[in-house]
Design a protein that fits this description.
Distance between the termini of chain A: 37 Å
Strand content of chain A: under 5%
Largest sheet of chain A: 2 strands, antiparallel
Largest interface: A-B, 149 and 149 residues
Structural class of chain A: mainly alpha
Shape of chain A: globular
Order of helices and strands of chain A: HHHEEEHHHHHHHHHHHHHHHHHHHHHH
Strand order of the largest sheet of chain A: 2-3
Helix content of chain A: 55-70%
Number of helices of chain A: 25
Oligomer: homodimer
Chain lengths: 640, 640
């Protein structure tokens, strides 16, 4: 409506007043049009998200639990994508072929960054129009055109895939790291690491090999377009899980926290593993392989890539997290919560950027930065900053997550590089299921050999069932769509994501029932919430949770290091370093201990010394607030 | 350090293992390099902001008040900009000139969106290298090259100016709207509107005319490059004020709230006015003017543009704000604070996007959306969402504001299109000061003729003194730097911004002393905070503040409309519409009144019915919290 008013107004101005210089206005109008299309695209997604939020409110209000917001976002996305595809007008990109000017000297082996183009110069413009002045225009490099015939780019509701890795994924992954239920995470560390590291690699290998076999059985045209590296890449990108819906139902129904920790911890870490793994496979392809075949030296190089990039990214993230903890411990910046929150956000973002600048993986760095921030820095923050950072990242995570699922839906129809290949899609569905099974059952068997409370069979089934695919798989698939093989992978990945999120997510409650997994573990949840209230951390972390389940060996080693060195160094936790370090280190220890750490027993208002077992996933409650209000806050919207 | 490790590792892999296909790797390395440069640029700003935060903490800790964080951000920016300029290596853009392929048919009057370029094809590549396969690359349209000789673009710490209008300014402006101290804002509405609307236009005109005169007196080469429209544009862009530093000192020293409201209100609105005004001048240039001279019809058209775009943008923003209020009133989405906050953010962002899609001004829409959100929606939100939205935008505003000031500093040295012209700079400083004087003194005189408590002379001096220039001026100046005249304007604007923020900002405390403006108005501040605690809004707004100063006539009309129609319609405030609307409207009124509105007297815990006089600028305190904690929160970092 407004648009028409403005349009009429402009038309009126135009007709009555002016006839300016033609090209300038046309060019201006073109720039405006492009900006408007960009804004319109964003507006579509904003409206879709608004719609999702409102519908989800209705669902929550009416206690509908078979559809999570991500599932709804996908469905709305699909509907709107179909409408845009079949009803919208197209905005094609105009293009012409050019040659260098005669006599140009240029002696680099890469194409130039920019072309300068005289227009219209020698081009035959339709006669009758007023003559157009010659001008020089700049054109900047975009990329290689593989299929010259098929390069009509639509400006319809699509974005540069790199925004996922630089804008959408970082807050999601950081939030995941910042939210790890730490007590149970560290208690199940062995199982989580096994599933995430070994399991993901195994799953990628199995899926890659099976897909390669399937592809060989298919029509020859298809078989020839896939190399083993391609299918292995597919295996790597389809392996990470994203069980948002399942986890939301878990926390709603209060399912066993160990199972929750295993599923959540695995899904957080396998994103990172898959990202680095797929990067290593891609590097192998461009750097080490001459013909797409297998070479032992290249294989070792790719494994070196994987280990090097993963561990260095981890290091960058963890160091930035610890640096933030040190700053927040030794300065009194927490007297100004806004400054403190800004510092927290800036340092976390710096971890991402440093990793990217060093050609490492920013998303992995941000994950481990988030874990360190939650484990150390969070304890030093003022209560205002705790709420602020938690709420900020919760909101960012909510928006980013739903945006990506909406985009998966919309892009099914609008992304121009889809390639529907029924055989590949069917094979993809079957192998990705098999890959998940290979990830869970054999490894659970091996883990149970050494684990004190073994993983029960119904838990294993639930782990298998929680293999929903999500944001990371999609982002990896859409990153590279140059060949037909890659396009078929994108289509298959999109369909697997949509199917698992909507169908598996919707059936999660029934699966819990069917597998007879106990729900409503009020007592268990209670014992987790308890330390939050009464612990003043006078008991060292290592000995504090004897009452809970058995701890994994790995967790015990880590716990000792953590409670004796890292926590006293990076937070205000007791015992101070002066008590835990050997005698000859005392002078250094004294330097690194704050007076707060010696005297904190007196402080009753600020819970800066909160225990690492604090579950920051809980609805945050200021420590001295009346119980009635806290009940009201508790009724609010918990963690996704 | 990490970088070297990675580099060595890669080098090792390279040397020992592979020699892949040359161009692919070179191209890949180039893409990686560009991404790394982008990340590095962002990292520089992130580190600068971190440094600013830490230094400001030290300053606050040591009670240094002569330097605000924006001033510090500028200074750090200048230092780092100088280092990058004189120490950093350059990354020049390579370019070649191209012609269309023979036989190309193309008959549009605008240049094509994309060029396709075969490389290397006929280009003479240095012999001796291995032959490079021919490939086709895509190049996308960037813009006109005005000065063909001088188009070396550095990739050094500069960003596309449009990010200011689409990413940096919206949260700043929204926050300003969301934070208006509403009681005093509406009480001084007449003065604020006069200064912001009439004053800014007057100031732009005076500065434009004076600058044109000055330019004519200068050497001929300079005089010929400036048209009257150019200097008028300069007048428009240098007129908006941004007295962040002054306002921070005001709230620290508790200066008279009416003066605070006038300065803050004016600075918020004149940004919007200047933005639309400069847009209208630019439109005049491209649409209505044939030779840069004056035409009465074009002038009227430009005025029509100004009024049309401003009021339509206002309408879009206000409607979106009211729509959010309606949704939050009639649904129970506030039971899930995360959904509610997400809805709030999405709707506010939609206001920006809708305005941009309609070729209106998104920033203006977002401003009025923010005002409506604060005036209506805020009262419907759950207390969790109130904190969350307030803290979110406070943080975004803090980061965006300091980013832009850092960028002003850095770009002084790194932006390639600066043009230092001493005469123009001196003239700019003098005329911008005169323009501010013309804005304040004559209009204050006129206002005092009708105003009950007149604006005292020392308040007028303070208004004059608060004419710091800031983010909006800079963003407008850097938006268009095609001609030498525009480049001189950018340089002058940058210098005026830096000088006023650092020097005038630093001298603000002394100016308050010198002008004998009373500080420490504890009682006045108290009377403002009072309604926040005890009003349950049972008294209609129109009659509730007889104790304060006299209200402007405009404010009274608005107040009546607001309290009888808008507030009861959009919020849960009393009296309900059933009491304020005429009898024949009762059925509609009953439909639009919630049961909550009838029964709210019983509700003692939730202050959803809070008065419009609520100053959301105060540190937020949950209503039922113990006094000791609230004192602790109060000591936190208040509003900037």
């Amino acid at each position: 409506m407004n648009r028409n008013v403005v349009f009429t107004f402009f038309l009126f101005c135009f007709v009555t007043i002016c006839r300016g210089s033609g090209t300038d206005i046309a060019l201006d109008a073109k720039a405006t049009l492009l900006h408007r299309i960009d804004s319109l695209n964003l507006l579509i997604y904003t409206c879709l998200l608004t719609l999702t939020v409102l519908t989800i409110w209705v669902f929550k209000h009416r206690r509908v639990s078979w559809l999570h917001e991500t599932g709804l976002a996908v469905i709305y996305g699909l509907i709107v994508g179909a409408i845009i595809r079949y009803a919208g007008s197209t905005n094609h990109i105009t293009h012409i072929n050019v040659n260098p000017e005669p006599g140009t000297t240029y002696n680099l082996s890469v194409p130039p960054d920019m072309l300068r183009f005289h227009f219209p110069a020698s081009l035959p413009i339709t006669p009758g129009d007023s003559p157009i002045a010659n001008k020089t225009y700049a054109y900047s490099f975009r990329g290689e055109i593989v299929n010259v015939e098929q390069n009509e780019i639509d400006l319809k509701a699509t974005f540069d895939p790199e925004i996922f890795f630089n804008i959408i994924l970082p807050p999601i992954i950081f939030h995941a790291g910042y939210c790890l239920k730490r007590k149970y995470f560290f208690r199940n560390l062995g199982a989580i690491l096994t599933f995430a590291m070994v399991g993901t690699a195994l799953s990628a290998l199995v899926i890659g090999a099976l897909m390669y076999g399937c592809v060989q059985l298919m029509p020859a045209s298809l078989a020839s377009s896939f190399t083993f590296l391609d299918t292995l890449y597919f295996g790597a990108l389809i392996s990470p899980t994203d069980p948002l819906t399942v986890l939301a139902i878990f926390s709603q129904l209060k399912v066993d926290v160990n199972l929750y920790a295993m599923i959540f911890g695995e899904s957080v870490l396998n994103d990172a593993v898959a990202l680095v793994l797929s990067g290593a496979i891609q590097n192998y392809e461009t750097r080490y392989s001459h013909d797409g075949g297998f070479e032992i030296s290249g294989f070792l190089g790719a494994i070196g890539d994987f280990i090097g990039i993963f561990s260095l990214s981890l290091l960058v993230g963890a160091l930035m997290g610890c640096l933030t903890a040190l700053i927040s411990k030794f300065t009194h910046v927490r007297d100004w919560p806004l400054l403190e929150s800004a510092l927290f956000v800036l340092m976390s973002y710096a971890a991402f950027l440093i990793a990217e600048v060093c050609e490492l993986t920013g998303v992995v760095a941000v994950l481990f930065c988030g874990i360190c921030q939650a484990h150390y820095t969070y304890n030093n923050l003022s209560s205002d900053s705790r709420n602020r950072t938690k709420q900020l990242f919760e909101l960012l995570n909510f928006l980013a997550e739903n945006f990506i699922f909406t985009y998966i839906g919309v892009s099914m129809f609008t992304f121009p590089k889809h390639h529907f290949d029924p055989w590949f899609i069917i094979a993809g569905f079957i192998t990705s299921m098999l890959g998940r099974a290979v990830n869970i059952y054999p490894l659970s068997f091996l883990l149970n050999l050494g684990r004190k409370p073994p993983i029960p069979v119904n838990f294993q089934h639930m782990l298998f069932f929680s293999g929903l695919r999500g944001a990371m798989s999609f982002a990896l698939a859409i990153r590279n769509t140059v060949s037909e093989a890659r396009q078929a992978m994108l289509t298959t990945t999109s369909m697997i994501v949509i199917a698992t999120v909507v169908l598996q997510g919707g059936a999660a409650t029934h699966a819990l029932d069917y597998l007879r997994i106990p729900t409503g573990q009020g007592s268990n949840e209670e014992s987790e919430a308890l330390p939050y209230r009464d612990v003043r951390s006078d008991t060292p972390r290592g000995g504090g949770d004897a009452g809970g389940g058995q701890k994994a060996r790995l967790a015990r080693v880590w716990g000792a290091l953590d409670s004796r060195l890292l926590k006293p160094l990076l937070t205000h936790a007791r015992p101070p370093l002066t008590e835990t370090l050997p005698a000859f280190m005392r002078p250094v220890a004294r330097l690194l201990t704050t007076t707060h750490q010696y005297t904190q027993g007196d402080n009753t208002l600020r819970r800066t010394d909160s225990d690492s077992d604090l579950c920051i996933d809980d609805p945050q409650i200021p420590s001295s607030i009346d119980p009635q209000l806290s009940i009201n806050i508790r009724n609010g919207y918990g963690h996704v």
